[in-house]
Protein 1
Amino acid sequence: MKNLISIICWCIVLILPIATLSQYTQKGNEQKYILRLAQMGIRVDAKFQSNTPQASRIMAAWDSLYDIGKKLQVNNTLPDTIWEQLIIQEINKAILGKDFKNSNRLHFYLAHIYHAKKLFSKSIPIQLKLIDSSSHLTKIQLQKTYTQLEKAFVQTNEFASALAIRKKRLKNGLAASSYDLYQDFELHELALNEYLIYENPNREKIVDQYKYYRILGVLYFENGKIDSAKKYFEIGLKLCAQNLKSGNKKVPSKIHQINSANFKGLLGRCYMNKGAYNKAIQLLKADINLSEDDANNRIFKMIHLANCYVKLKDGPNALIYINKLEAYLFKKEDKRMFIRFYDLKQNYFELKKEYDSAYYYAHQYITLKDRHTSSISKNQAILLLSNIEADARKKDLLITKANLEIERVAKKAQNASLWASIFVAIAVSITLLLLFIYTIQKNKSRVTIEKKNEENELLLKELHHRVKNNLQVIYSLINLQKRRLKTPELDESLSMVQNRIKTMSLVHQNLHENDSLKDVNLAAYIKTISDYLKSLYLTDEKEITISLDIDNNIAFMMDKSITIGLLINEIMSNSLKYAFKGRTKGLITISIQIIQGGYQMKVSDNGNGFTNDESTSKSLGMYLIKNLVKQMQGKYEMESMDGTTYLIYFKA
C-alpha cells in the first residue's frame, strides 16, 4: 500500500510540471499570435474575440499574404484554426448587419481554409453558393473558387461534377488548358502534351517558375519517364539554390527553402522508383521536415517514406510513420490518400507476417481502388468527347487572338502614318525623317504579321491533328466496347458509327497534311474514303473496281466536305455490303461535275439493284442520306436499272 502511494506521488510530481509547461507554452503562442494580429491592425482579446467589425482588415491581411502565391505564408502567420475562428466571427457580424457583400467575400476565404484541410464536405457547399452569387468576388477569386471546386470533386471521386465545372470554366474564359483535368482523369499522355503546348515556360514570378518545373516533372513521372522527371526536378532544385544564394528579397527565403525541400521529395520518388531506397529516404525526410505548414504534402511523402522502410524490411521505422499517418488522416476526405495508405498497411502487415491484417487492408485497398478506377473509366470517354468541343473553342480563341494582334499592328502603322502627315506640314527635313521611320515601322509590321500568320498556320495544323487524334480515340473506345458485345446487330451498328467517325477524321487529316488550312481537296478526300471502305468490306474473293471522276481543282470548306464524305460513306457502304451478293466482280463509279448554279454528284454501281420496298426503307442509312442532302440545300434522285444510281444536286 505504501509503495502504491509512493508511486502516485512521484507521478504527480513528474506530470504536474509538464502540464504546467504545456499550459505556459500554449499561452505564449496565443500572445505571439495576438501580437502578429495587432501588427496587421487587427485587435482581439485573449480569446481572439473582437466587438468591432474587422472584416476589411482581415481580408486585406489575407490578400497581402496570399499575393506571394503560396498558402503556407498564411499558415506561417497564424494557424488555420485561428483564421477560421476570426473569419466565422466576421461572417456572423456581416449577416447580422445584412452586409451580404462582405459575407460572400468572407465565405471565399473560409472555403479556402476548408479546401486546404481536405474538408471537402464543408468547402464544396460554400463554393457552390459562391459561384451562384459571384457578383461580389473578383475575377481571380472566382477563378480560384472554380479551380478548387473542380479539384474537390476529383478528390472525392465525383468526376462528372468535376467535368461540368471544367466546361463552365472554359465557357467563362477561366481556364486556358485542360492538362490538370486530364491528369485527374489519369489520361497522363494527353495531360503532358496539353501542358507542353499551352503552358508558357517563360514565367516572370519566381514562384510560378517553381510551379512550372514541378508540374512538368510530375507529368513526366506519371507517364513513366523517370529520367525526364528527374531532369526537371533537378532544374527546379538548382533554381531554388540560386535564389537562396542571391538573397532575393522579393520573396521570403522560406519560400525558396520549402520549394527546395519539395523538389528533393519529388527526386526521392524518382530514386524510390529505381530501387535506391536509402537515397530516397534522405530526400523524403528533407521534404517532410519543412512540410509542417503543408499537411497534404507531408501525408503523401510520409506514405512514400514508410513504403521505403517496408521495402528495406525495416518494420519499426515503417511503423513510426504509419502511426503518425493514422493521426494526420483523421477527418481527411481525399480518397487518393486512403488508397495509398491502405496499400502501405497491407505491405507492412505482409512484412510482419500478420496475414489477417494484411488481408483486411488488401480488401480495403481493392474496394476503394476499384471504385476509384470504375469512376475514372466511366468518365474518361465523356471527357474525350467533350474535348473535341474544347479544342474547337481553343482554336477560335487562338484565331481571335491572332486577328486582334494583326489589327493592333495595323492600327499602329496607321497612327505612324497620321503622325507623319502632320509633321510634313512643319518641315521638309522632319517629314523626310518621319517617312524614313514610318517605312521601317511598316516593314517591321509586315514581318510581324507574316510571322504571326506562320504561327497561326502551325497552330491550326496542330489543332486539326489533335481533333483527328481525338476522333481516333473515340473510334478505339468503340472497338473496345464491340469486343464485349455478343449481338451481331449491335456490332454492325457500332461499325457503321465507326465509319462515320473515320470519315470526319479524314477531313482533319487532309487539312493537316495539305498546304490549305480551310479548303479540302475533294478528289483526294473521296479517294481516301473509298480506299478505306474497300479495305474494310472486300475480301480476296471479290474484285470490285472503284472509278473516280472528280476534278482535282474542286475544293470545299470543312463543313461541306464532311457532309459529302458522309454521303459517300453511306452510299458506298450499302453498295459494298449488298449490291454484289453472289457476284465476284463489280464496278462502283463516283463522279462530281460542275453544272450551272452548282454541282452534280453521281454515285452508281452495276450490282443487283433494289426493290421498291427497299427504296422506301426507313433505315438509318437512308434517313442520313435524305437529311445530309437537305443539309446541303440540295436534292437527290435514286434509280435501280442495271444496278443502283444516286444523282445528287447541290449549290456551290
Note: The chain has 24 helices and seven strands.
Protein 2
Amino acid sequence: MDSAREYDIGAAPWLTRMAQYLCLSLLIAAVFMGGVFLRGWTWARTEPVRFEWDIRNGFHWGESALKHGEQITGLTLAETRGWDSWRIFAAGYLSLYDEVEAASSNRDYGLDYPPLRLLAMSLWVKSVRAAHPEADVGRAELYGQPLLRFNLFCEALAALAMFLLVRHWVQRDDGRTVPLFARGLSPEWHGCSRGLLAAAFVWLNPSIILTSHGWPQWDVWIIPLYLFAALCASTDRWFWCGCLLAAGAMLKGQLLIVAPFFVLWPLAARQYGAAARVVLGVAAALAVLLSPWLLNDAADRLLFMQIAALAALLLLLLRRGTRQQRLLCFVSGASIAAFAIGALRGGSFGWLRVGFVYGADLPQGLLGGTGTVAGACYNLPSLLAAFGFALKDRLFDFNLGPVSATLSLQWALRILYFAGLAGCAIWAARRARIGDARTLLAIAAPWLLMLAVLGQMRERYSLWAAAATAVTVAISLRLTILHVVFSLLSTAMIVHVMLGEKQFDPTPQLLNFLDAQHLLGACLFLVCAALYLMAVGGLPDLARRAATARRPP
C-alpha cells in the first residue's frame, strides 16, 4: 500500500503537467484555426468594398515582366514548359526595370516595386498563367488566392516571431516587469504565457486581417522580417539582423526608414563592432539579392569571382584576427566589389531609380492617403494640413556668409523623426544592458514614431505600428490599452479608404462620420503615441520615484 501511495503521489505532477500542455495546445490550435476562419470570412464579406487597384496593379506588372521576357527570348509562355518557361521569366524579370525606365520620357514610371516584391508578383502571374491561360488584369482578384495564402503565411510567421521575441526578453527580465494578469502564474510560465498572448494579439489583429485579406495589400510581408531582425539584435546576432533588414527593404522600401534604429542601438551601447556588423549584413544581403543587375554579364561575374578568390586567399595567408573577423572582412570586400563592378562596368541601377527613388518622390503631400480619400491618416502632418500647411513650406532661412540653407516643413518633420529614433535607440541600449523587458517598447517605437511624425504616410502603414506595439501585453495592462487603441484607429483608417472607393448606400453617411472625426482621431492617436513614447523613455518610473521621494519618512 505504501509503495502504491508513493507511486500515485509521484505521478500526479506529471499528469498535471501533461494536462497543462494539452490544454495549452488545444487553446493555441483554437486561436490559430479561428484566425484562419476569420481571414476567409473577411475575404468573402469585403467583396463590395474591396480595393481592387492594388491586386490588379500587381498582376499588371507581373504580366509585363512575362510579356517582356517573351519579346526578348522569342518564345511564348503558353507554348513552353519546363526550363524554357523559366528562361522567359528570368529574362523579363531582370530587364523590366530598364525597359520601364527607357519607355518613360518624363520619369513617370508607374512601377514602384522593389526587386523582391516584383519577383513575388511575377511568380504569382506565372502560376496563374499556367493554370488559367485566359486570365486578364481586369479580373485579377479572382486569382488572388496564392497571394492571400502567402499573406497568411507571413502573418503566422509574424506571430511566431513575436512569441520568440517577447519570450526572450521576459526570460532575461527575470521577473522585474510583471503585468497584472501574470502575477498569479508560476515564474517558469511567464515567458511562454506572455509570448503567446503577444502572438495572439498579432494573429487576431483586425488591422492586419483587414489589410491583408479585405483590401488586400502586401504590407504584412515585412512584419516577420522586422521582428526576427529584432530577435537577432536581442541575441547579439547583428550581422543576421542586417541581412533580414535588407531582405525586408527589397519587399517594402519603407523598412529603410526604421532600419537605422538597429545601427543607432549598438552605437548608443558603445558596441561599435556590432553596429558595423549590421551595416555589413545589409551590404552583403543587398549584394547577393542585386547581383543579377550589378553583374549583368559573364565578364562581370568572372571578374567578381576572381576578386573574391584573391580576397579569400589573402585572408587565409595573413591569418590575422579570429575566424569570424576574417569572414566579415571577406564579406565586406566581396560586397564592395559587387557594387564597384556594377558602378564602373555598366551594371543596371534601374532597380534603384524605379523601385525606390520613384516611389519616394511621388507627390503625396502632407496627408498621404490613398485613392479618393487623401486625408485618412491620423498623424501630426494631417493636423498641420488642416491648418493650411504644405509639405514644402519654408520655415526658416539660414544665411551664414557664403553658406545659406532653407529648412522646409518636410525636413523639420524628418529631423524630429530621426531625433526621436535616436532617443529610442538610447533607451533600448540602456534597458538592454540590464536585461529589462521594457526594451521591447523601444524596439516597437520606430514604427509608431514614423507614422505619427512623417508626411507622405499612407493609412495602411499604421498596421506596422499596430503589429509591433503588441509587445505591450508583456509589460503592463495600461500599455496594452494603448496597443488596442492603435489597432482600432488603424482599422478605422483602412475602413475609411475602402469605403471611400465604393460609393453606395449607406456608405456616404459612414464616410461623413469618419470625415468629421478625422481631427479627433488624429489628436487621440498623437496623445496615445506620446504616452507610449513617455513609457519608452521611462518617465512613469521617474514620476513614481519622485512621488516616493516626496513622501515623509
Note: Confidence is low (pLDDT under 50) at residues 1-11, 370-374, 542-550.
